[in-house]
Amino acid sequence: MSTAADTPPPSAIARIIAAGTHQRVLAFASLVVLLIGFSIASPNFMQTSNMIAILQATSVNGVLAIAVTLVIITGGIDLSVGTMMTFCAVITGVVLTYAGMPLIFGVVAALATGALCGTCSGTFVAKMKIPPFIATLGMMLILKGLSLVISGTRPIYFNDTPGFSEISRGSLIGEVIPALPIPNGVLILFIVAAFTAYILNRTVLGRYCFALGSNEESVRLSGVNTDRWKIAIYALAGAIVGIAGLLIASRLNSAQPALGLGYELEAIAAVVIGGTSLSGGRGSILGSLIGALIMAVLTNGLRVLSVAQEWQTVVTGAIIILAVYADMMRRKNSN
Asked: Which helix (H) or strand (E) holds 156?
């Protein structure tokens, strides 16, 4: 069992978090520039319905970005979050539609499935010493195949599950304040973000998350069971991905077994844009949220301007390369 002496000092964690403040400010400034630019380019961009659509799109990618943030801070990577999200949605469909169980059981199934998948990935990385890139790439393929097998390659619809579509598309805020019809999915995103930020900045698990990314060997030599903490972080990230699975299934009112590939790239791009270092040891939930908003605004703005889907993909790829290059430059300058 770890002791207080094993725990990285809060002051050190504060310095690590503060190191990414400059990048978060730059990311927020970029978001403002994009909003102003697209507003000038198209009068339809700033319409209320379009802003809600952007927030709705951000809810799924934002939750995935939060999960990826935890893993990347430890110095790892998770390429399976997209297909894991789909797998969680499919399992939810099996529980609610095939088994006909109450809604709460579907929610629990999604969270438990994500946590189990994350635990498996964490075990591959921590216990079997498989590089995170390879371990999560393998999980991505496994979960993609299982989603297709379990669903029979067919979508699973939630038409007979009362209230399921309200998870993402309903608006509790809109019922109280009609002028603010903000979808529940966005509300869930901010709740998940606040909860994860608290864990990351105020708990022992969060301190070890930063410590593992900064210098895992030193933490291990101090007598801490680093494997256990790493598995716990991957499990938490998996449970958060389960929430993303619920959100996307609710938004589509179905579990689409072929969906998921590509979401991990946007999530990773959002995380890096928000200031989280791919080398580990530095990052924030706020930065990842800003990054997810940038990706959603960019995609929506290009669509409003009638830019072809192919070119939207090209832009996304270019942003990923630029984000990684900027992270490399930040590391070089800090050294």
From this structure: strand 156-157
Q: Which of 235, 212, 229 is nearest to 67 (CA)?
A: 235
Tell me the helices (H) and strands (E) count for the chain, helix number first.
14, 2
Q: pTM, whole model, 2 decimals?
A: 0.90
Which structure tokens are listed for 157?
A: 């619809």
For residues 178 and 163, what is the distance between their CA atoms, to the nearest angstrom?
Answer: 20
129 and 218 Cβ atoms separated by less than 8 Å? no
Residue 16 contacts residue 278 (beta carbons within 8 Å): no
Q: Which of 184, 220, 203 is nearest to 63 (CA)?
A: 184
Q: What is the pLDDT of residues 221-264, one digit of tens each?
A: 888 899 999 999 999 999 999 999 999 999 999 999 999 888 99
Tell me the Ramachandran region of residue 306: left when phi exceeds 0, alpha when psi lies from -120 to 50, beta otherwise.
left
Tokens 């991905």 -> residue: 241
Q: Helix or strand or coil: residue 221? A: helix
